[in-house]
Amino acid sequence: MTKEYSNAIEVAGLTKTFNGTISVDDVSFAVQPGELFGFLGPNGAGKTTTINMLTGLARPDAGAIHIGGVDCTQQTRAAQHLIGVVPDESNLYPELTGFDNLCFCAALYGLPKRERQNRARRYLDTFGLTQAAERKFGGYSKGMKRKLTIAAGIIHNPEILFLDEPTTGLDVASARQIRQLLADLHHAGTTIFLTTHYIEEAERLCDRIAFIVRGRIVRIDTVENLMRQTEGRYVVEFAVSSHAAELCAAMMAEFSNLQCRTVAGGGIRVESSEPVRVGPLARFLEDHRAEVFEARKIRPSLEDVFVDITGIEAGVMKQEKEKVKAGGGA
Amino acid sequence: MKAWIAFWNILVKDMRSYYLKPPNISWGLLFPLVWMVMFFIRSGLGMERLADLLPGLVALSILFGTTSVLSVTVTFEKKGRSFERLLLAPISLKTLMLAKTSGAILFGTINALVPVFIAMFLTDLSAINWAILIPAMILIAVTSTFLGLFIAVSVKEVFEAQTFSNFFRFPMIFLCGLFFPLEQIPVWLRPLSYVLPLTYGADILRSAMGQVSSMSPVLDFGLLLVSCVFLFFVSLRNIRRKWIA
User: Fold this and answer.
1) In angstroms, what separates the C-alpha of A95 from chain B's closest C-alpha?
2) Is A91 in contact with B2 (Cβ distance < 8 A)?
3) Which residues of chain B does A89 touch, with a Cβ-Cβ cutoff of 8 Å?
4) In the predicted model, is pLDDT for residue A330 greater than 50?
């Protein structure tokens, strides 16, 4: 695939306000051709609003957007020729079959009939949906719907693909299959802009990541550089029977070289710049009448970097998002 | 060519998914038929006077045929987010909305032919000027469809689309001179009649069927065309303002 532009996506000073509330605040970044760029942030951080502006579904109040070198705010249609979009919720036609949905989506990009049908068959096969090709989309399972929505987003072979939370709410097998597919597309040279709240997914797939909080980008870097921040950090997590907060405070008082905090599910997370010895800490907890169910050393991950940078617990973010999805929200 | 492929496929999908569904076809056939029988019985006229009722029935068939489905389906697709997929396609908003409305225009025009076809077997229609009637039916269908589009863009929920449609449609039955001359409408209500595009549509139909009309067909066509362009562009502006905000 030959690209005649230096940046696949270029955004400068992007701002959007809804009813007086700033949703996206002076956001700037650039995504290189062939790059898999992650856009991470908690619920309501401005991820979907940013995608909507980049894809022509919303107008920015201020700022410039260039998609494949085309000014998206002035030549939206030209920019839309280059992109494929997979929204956070499946938006295909429930009354059409899987095959007809793909053919219809291809027709929207002006593909001739035979080409549409060939591609539809090929993608149904790629996504393991050939058996369900003639079934109505409305009757598909959640995983199948997600796969077909992704197929519909790439049926016209876009150079740049926008994916909004592609694996949210999916079973493990489907999510894994979709991640593999994204990796394949990435290797094939497609530029991918991915929003997700699964930090481990972003860590595994992305070349670079932007963290967005309350409409502002707080950090953009390569996964490698971000992970460098965790070098020389040692983490141990304890699962204890009760009063985790009190135990945390007591541990900090006793062991001055440790940083302790409670984690979801009644645990204590201990961090240090030196290797942590589990034995003395477990004994300390037991001496304080706490039953220790589990103690495990943890390799610091991108999630820790995210928490450091944003101050938001990744687990809380994930739960929030799942709750919104279950409630039918965006 | 690419825009034409998209246009054609949107039209075909809408025809298959919405307009050619059995309940819609039966509604399209039954509705004008019931109104025809109702007004015929109520008027107490003989079969030879059936043609007098025809302009009103044709106008009514078009109005209900076009507005019933379009306002609901667009609202439904907007709510189900499948409309977003259309907005993401690299076609102009004008082309997209013309494609979305073409199904309704086609369905409304075919709907309008039902009472004419039935009347052919019951009375003499030799006075009809087909060269005026057919373009008039198409233009009324276009205007009514754009009224349906205007309604669809103004509401958020499917039930609101139905309520808002009826808010326009039912008064139009009595205010647009479909079944009795405008002169019989109270003077204070008449300005409202002249604001409603169907008034001019019904007037052309009367003229095309050899009956007395209030205005010249050219003026009727002109005013209908102005309404049509106005409704389409106001709807486009509202879509840009509300849906691509």
Assistant:
1) 7
2) no
3) 81
4) no
Look over chain A and give the mean of its residue pLDDT values, rounded to a whole number. 89
- Establish if B80 touches chain A: CB-CB under 8 angstroms: yes
Torsion sign across C-alpha atoms A69, A70, A71, A72: negative
pLDDT at A314: 60
In the block, tokens 């198409």 appear at B138
pLDDT value of position B219: 95
CA-CA distance, A292 to B201, in Å (whole number)?
A: 83
Minimum Cα–Cα distance from A149: chain B residue:
B85
CB-based contact B89 A85, cutoff 8 Å: no
pLDDT of A313: 66
Phi-psi region of A68 (alpha: psi -120 to 50; beta: other; left: phi over 0): left
Per-residue pLDDT of B20-46, as tens digits, reads 888 887 877 787 778 778 877 877 766
Instruction: Evaluate whether B45 touches B122 at the Cβ level (below 8 Å).
Output: no
Closest chain B C-alpha to A71 CA, distance in angstroms: 14
B126 contacts chain A (CB < 8 A): no
In order of start, what are the domains of chain A with their CATH numbers? 9-228 (3.40.50.300), 234-300 (3.30.70.100)
Residue B99, SS3?
helix
Tell me: pLDDT of B6 over 60.
yes
Q: Nearest residue of B to residue A79 by CA position? A: B90
Q: pLDDT tens digits, residue range A126-148? A: 999 999 999 999 999 988 999 99
Confidence of residue A329 (pLDDT cuts 50, 70, 90): very low
Taking CB atoms and an 8 Å limit, are A110 and B3 in contact across chains? yes
Interface-testing mutation among B88, B92, B93, B240, with chain A (most A C-beta atoms within 10 A): B88
Q: Is B10 on the interface with A (CB under 8 A)?
A: yes
Determine whether A111 is exposed, middle or buried from the number of CB atoms within 10 Å of its CB (0-12, 13-18, 19+).
buried
Touching check for A81 and chain B: CB below 8 Å? yes
Judged against a pLDDT cut of 90, whether residue B212 lies above it is answered with no
Residues B227, B143: contact at Cβ < 8 Å? yes
Res B218: pLDDT:
94
Torsion-angle region of residue B9: left (phi > 0), alpha (psi -120 to 50) or beta? alpha
Domain that holds residue B41: 2-242
Mean pLDDT of A2-13: 85
In this complex, the residue of A80, A91, A112 whose CB is nearest that of residue B89 is A80
Q: How far apart are CA A40 and CA A48, in angstroms?
A: 11
What is the number of domains present in chain B? 1
> Which A residues in the span 21-80 are in contact with B, Cβ-Cβ below 8 Å?
55-59, 77-78, 80
